[in-house]
Structures are given as structure tokens and as C-alpha cells.
């Protein structure tokens, strides 16, 4: 029963009502007793004065007169048997009383409350009960004055012990019966109302719990499209959960897509690794078995083919290794000022022989003001190498490749232009996508290359990016920017 939130809330409310009802009972009982004591004491405030003035309780010597005390006792029994009268001396000692059969346990009464009563203090006031060692009662008192001095007091206890005990028994019985009926009815009502109210209030929370359980056991979350109005905390929590569920579903779909792309990439890389490896192994096996029987020309041709396949494998493994390091954030940018003009010249020299062999015009042009940049020289060299290699491989004989750098404000713009075959419009948006580059199948060139993806990741580490402009059959232009070195 207590496994649900609304039942625990209802039980908590019932316990609180019970505690509150008990506290209210004791407070009301105490306030009622004070009220009755104040009323009784105010109504009987002059009874001691009346007894003193109309019933002389002492003889000529000032000692208590037994006859007068007996007469007072009979009068009190007729008028109010709950009242007890005592004669006190000036120090508060009990000298006599109007109850012959009473057993006086306290021989002296504390006079402080008596003096406060005579001074007109706020009622109710209590003083010592001579018939009890520890009880106090409301009272009325009048001083006995002889020769201008107080020689004693007429001390009247307004609620005797018997009357008080009877009143407490009756009040306790009625109060307990009334309280039991009230608390029982309130408890039943509170439980009924509490269960219904909390059941209604926690309904959205139960629905959200069911959705969380379904999400926990679902293979793939089902995004919620229904919008819940944000009226309270639970509805806002539901909105947040729906947004989170939608986001998780999108992320799972993205992860699944990336996983498929990675598998395709692995298959493509495996295929492209297998091709040069198979060719390399085949030519090496032929050289090993028939080296002595081959002519010099055949040996040179076989060695040349094996060397080309080996270079292809080295380039492919280098690209994969470099891209893996970039994706794992293992590459740290060590930016420093360096002469861009010298770096461009060095890279161009590396490709001059390749350009000459293919009949391609390769030239570099660095405008004044663009000589110095602030970047990682090793990583920027890799970007230039990848872009020039890509441009030369896609430019036919008689074409041209041009690398240019010029200053634009606080940045240096680098452009690599070729007059090659250009880029198809459907390929252009995904030209730098690693997964696309790795998985696209080109019969003329099985390996698409990862050089462009590596270049973009390096430039993004420099808070830059790379753009491409191309029309199919008219070449392409790759553009990126680097921060200008401070003078």
C-alpha cells in the first residue's frame, strides 16, 4: 500500500492531522480551564471579604472561634460545598479552617500570590492548597486588620479538591469521547480526500514514471511529439523528459548512422588495402621465384610496380593514422609565428618533379604583407601538402595549379587553384566528410582519399575552416584563412 507516492502522502496527512488534533485538544483543554478559573475567581473575588465582615471567626483574644468556624462550615455546605475557608496568621500559617473533618497537609501558605491578589493583579491567580502538598488553587482572600496592622487573612479556596477531581473526571470523559469522535471522523475524511486528491495530483507523475520505465527497456526510444502545458513542476519535468527522450532518440539514430558509416569505411579501407597489398605481394613473389630467369627490363618493371603499390600503402596508412589522431584529440596545436612564404616554397619544391612529369604548371604567389602567420607550422604544412597533392592528381596534362597567399585585414587568405576536372554538384556538399570520402566507390580511382578531411580537421584546430568553389570540368579553388602574425 505504501509503495506509491499518493498513499504515502495521504498517510502523512493523516498523521499530521492526528498530531495537530491532539495538540489542539490539550491547548483547548488548558484554555478552557483557565477560562473557567478566571470566571470563578472574578465572581467569587469578594467572598473572603464578605466572610470577614459578616462572620467574626475569632474570639476576643484573636484566636479562632470554633463555633463561628462550624457555623461557616454549615453555611458553605449549603451555599457552595466546593469552597474551603481558612484562617491564616500574618506569616501565612494555618490557624483554623471551616472543615472539621478535613486533613490539612500544608501548615503554611505562600503569601506572594495573596499579596498580588490584594494588589489587583490580573486573574486567574493560584495559591497553595492547604489540603495538598503540591497543588495550587484559585482563591479569594481578605486581610484581618487590628490597630492598623495586618494580623492575618481570611483565605478561601474556591475549588476544593473533591470538586476539582470530579470536574476533571467529567471533563476528561467528555473531552476524550468528543476528541475520539472528531479525530476518527477527520481521519476517515482526510484519508478519503487525501487518497483521491493525491491520486489526481500524482497522475502525471505516474504517467511519466511509466514513460521512463518504457524508455529504460526500449531498444530505441520513441520520441514524443505531444506537448504538455507547463502548469507546474511535474509538467515541466515531463516536458524536459520528452525533450531528453527526443534528443536521445536522435543521438541513437545518429550513432547508428555513424556506426553503419564506420562499418562501410572499414570495408572500403580493407578493400583498398587489400588491392595494393595483393598486387605488391604478387609482384614480389614473381621476383622471388623468377628473378634469375627475368630480363632486366621485366625486373625493373616489376620493382617499379611494387614500389608504387608500396607508396600507395604508405600514403593510405599515413592518412588513416593522422585522421585517427585528429579524431581522438591527440594532436595539440603549437601556434607560433613563422614565415608562410618559406613554407609555401618548400611544399612547392616537393611537388615540382611530380608536376613536371605530368606536364602541369605549378606556381606560387605570396603577396606583400602575407609573409608571416601565427599557426602550427607542421600542421599547416600537412594542409598544403594534402591540397597540392589533391590538385595535381585531379589536373590533366597541360593544366595548371596555383597557390596564392594575400593579406586580408588581420588574416591571411590562402587559395589553391587548379584547372582540373572539377567537382560534381552532388559531391560538393560532402567533399570533406570522412565517411563519404572513405566509402564512395570510383571505378577510376578506388580510394577516394582522406586528405581533404584531414585538412579540414587541422584548420578547425586553428579556429578556421576550408571552403571550396568549383564547377564540373572547370577546376576547383580551395580557400582557408590563418591569423596574421603580430608585427
Helical content stands at 40-55%
Strand order of the largest sheet: 2-1-5-4-3
Number of strands: 12
Structural class by secondary-structure content: alpha+beta
| Mean residue pLDDT | 77
Can you walk me through this structure?
There is one protein chain. By secondary structure, the chain is α+β, with helices and mostly antiparallel strands. It has three domains: 45-157, Beta-Lactamase; 222-330, Signal transduction histidine kinase, dimerisation/phosphotransfer (DHp) domain (Helix Hairpins, Orthogonal Bundle), CATH 1.10.287; 333-483, Histidine kinase-like ATPase, C-terminal domain (Heat Shock Protein 90). The protein has twelve helices and twelve strands. Helix 1 (5-43) packs antiparallel against helix 5 (161-201) and helix 9 runs parallel beside helix 10 (377-393).
Short description:
The protein is built from twelve helices and twelve strands.
Layout of SSEs?
Layout: H1 5-43, H2 47-54, H3 66-79, E1 84-89, E2 94-97, H4 112-118, E3 126-128, E4 136-146, E5 149-157, H5 161-201, H6 203-217, H7 233-290, H8 296-327, E6 336-339, H9 340-358, E7 361-366, E8 372-375, H10 377-393, E9 400-408, E10 411-418, H11 434-439, H12 451-461, E11 466-470, E12 476-483
Parallel strand pairs: 7-9
Antiparallel strand pairs: 1-2, 1-5, 3-4, 4-5, 6-8, 9-10, 10-12, 11-12
Helix pairs in contact: 1-5, 6-7, 7-8, 8-12, 9-10, 10-12
Any key phrases for this structure?
Helix Hairpins; Beta-Lactamase; Heat Shock Protein 90; alpha+beta; 3 domains; five-stranded mixed beta sheet; 487 residues; rod-shaped; five-stranded antiparallel beta sheet; 12 strands
